[in-house]
Amino acid sequence: MSLSVKAIGAFLLGLGLFASVPTYAERIRDLATIQGVRNNQLLGYGLVVGLDGSGDQTTQTPFTVQSIVNMLQQLGVTVPFNSSSLQMKNVAAVMVTANLPPFAQPGQMVDVVVSSIGNAKSLKGGTLLLTPLKGADGNIYGMAQGNLVVGGAGASAGGSSAKVNHLAAGRISNGATIEREVPSTIHNSETITLELTDTNFSTVSRMVGAINTRFGMTTASAVNGRVIRVKAPQSPDARVAFIGELENLDVTPAVQSAKVILNARTGSVVMNQTVTLDTCAISHGNLSVIVNTENTASQPAPFSQGQTTMVENAQIEIKKDEGEVILLNRAATLADVVKALNSIGATPQDLLAILQAMKASGSLRAELEVI
């Protein structure tokens, strides 16, 4: 068995042992979110200045020059717009993104991410100029400005260069100031709506039961397998206290459906605790083709006026390892499934094909998802 199979087997076996532990209750805040309490995405276009010759090549990014000219005109500086005469290697055009948290108030600070949209080599050491941040409705909700922190390094000399991490993006901690509050609808209705992160009718039923047991039998009602409506007090103080207590209620979630995730690019295989395996027989063998090419020179006979030519001598060899039929007994737990698959001695890439064949034959009792 190869080392990679052993490593993956040990990892999955650990998951199996962990999955065998009895399920504990989780808080409602970990299983569901409240409708209307969400982040909002902000976006802005700005300029980063103060770069050490690593900014945009303005002949190839005319929008950088245009932005500089427009900014200087707003500051009272008249500059004739001529992209061929303006060579500013210390400036870069960037996009600025941020998350506006729920209930954020004017004056609060949030982090921003700054990413180059031109051909700047690096944003290290740059300063973001005042940039308005807009929401999906087109309104300005924040203003960003500050010095960038770029988590990378690079150097070049004599035609050679070296770079560590990514230099075309950086971050500014507390780089944006909130200027507008997003209206909240959480107090506009007699009820609040809980939305589960995963659709599960059993979990919804258990959550409704836990809420009604704590606050009264008509407090919560299920809308579908994902949404629950909960009656809440009308006054803001009482509603906030009610939501705080509601989020901390313990609910034992239902067991998830059996699923196996296959990553075809990396060969990773991940299973959850409900995966089972029926009795089946598997034959696994390897076929390898080896091609060796040796180049030799063919010399003509003396005084024959012939020419020297190159001759390719190819040798092809096909090796086929003897296959072995292995009986996998019915497995009831994830740990047993992992042991059964590891007994085959296949590589992670081979497991992808084996699991797909087992699913097609009906032996794998789980949903198979390839990502």
UniProtKB/TrEMBL annotation:
<dbReference type="GO" id="GO:0009428">
    <property type="term" value="C:bacterial-type flagellum basal body, distal rod, P ring"/>
</dbReference>
<keyword id="KW-0282">Flagellum</keyword>
<keyword id="KW-0975">Bacterial flagellum</keyword>
<comment type="function">
    <text>Assembles around the rod to form the L-ring and probably protects the motor/basal body from shearing forces during rotation.</text>
</comment>
<dbReference type="GO" id="GO:0005198">
    <property type="term" value="F:structural molecule activity"/>
</dbReference>
<dbReference type="Pfam" id="PF02119">
    <property type="entry name" value="FlgI"/>
</dbReference>
<keyword id="KW-0732">Signal</keyword>
<dbReference type="InterPro" id="IPR001782">
    <property type="entry name" value="Flag_FlgI"/>
</dbReference>
<dbReference type="GO" id="GO:0071973">
    <property type="term" value="P:bacterial-type flagellum-dependent cell motility"/>
</dbReference>
<comment type="subunit">
    <text>The basal body constitutes a major portion of the flagellar organelle and consists of four rings (L,P,S, and M) mounted on a central rod.</text>
</comment>
<protein>
    <recommendedName>
        <fullName>Flagellar P-ring protein</fullName>
    </recommendedName>
</protein>
<keyword id="KW-0966">Cell projection</keyword>
<keyword id="KW-0969">Cilium</keyword>
<comment type="similarity">
    <text>Belongs to the FlgI family.</text>
</comment>
<dbReference type="GO" id="GO:0030288">
    <property type="term" value="C:outer membrane-bounded periplasmic space"/>
</dbReference>
